[in-house]
Amino acid sequence: MFPRLALSLGLLIGAGVIAVSLPAEAKTKVDASLMKTLDPDNDGTVDLKEAKDAGSAMFKKLDPDNDGTLDAKELKGVMDKSAIKKADPDNDGTLDLKEYEAVIEKDFKAADPDNDGTLDKKELESGKGQNLLKLIV
Ligand SMILES: [Ca+2]
Ligand SMILES: [Ca+2]
Ligand SMILES: [Ca+2]
């Protein structure tokens, strides 16, 4: 009886670890419908202007009180506190659209190792591309 119980407990704990570790690995898949949103000119890649346009739509979505800035609460799940601090040169604790777009530009460049000014599906789905996707979708 006891070894059985220990075994089931072990299985439960194991399953718990797997369940907990999954979300960290959850990736945003760049499927056809997401690509359509991000790539209005339909050339198969996302350029910086398209990323910024998507980002400013996201900014509006994150700013329901519509005061033109995002505070840490509104940025929850998108940027953590230390990322916000780095992105906030005027140090007022919130990001305005200009500051938000500067982060998009930085993450865009980081996600574009071949430096051709566009992100293809593979670059968007890379680790660095995921950082950018968080800001724009
Ligand atoms: Ca495009
Ligand atoms: Ca600011
Ligand atoms: Ca590229």
Question: Would you kindly provide a written description of the structure presented here, covering whatever features stand out?
Answer:
With about 140 residues, the protein is mainly α. The chain is built from seven helices and four strands; from the N terminus they run ααβαβαβαβαα. The strands form two sheets. The protein has a two-stranded antiparallel sheet. It has a two-stranded antiparallel sheet with strand order 2-3. The termini are far apart. The chain has helices at about 1-25, 30-40, 50-60, 80-85, 95-110, 120-125, 125-135; strands at about 45, 70, 95, 120. It has one domain: Orthogonal Bundle (Recoverin, domain 1). The chain is globular. One calcium ion binds near residues 45, 46 and 47. One calcium ion binds near residues 92, 94, 95, 96 and 99.
Q: Strand order within the widest sheet?
A: 1-4
- List ligands, each type once: calcium ion
Q: In percent, how much strand structure appears in the residues?
A: 5-15%
What string, H for helix and E for strand, traces the elements in order?
HHEHEHEHEHH
Number of domains: 1
- The CATH topology corresponds to Recoverin, domain 1
**Top-tier CATH class:** Mainly Alpha
Helix content: 55-70%
Radius of gyration: 19 Å
Please identify the structural class as seen in this structure: mainly alpha
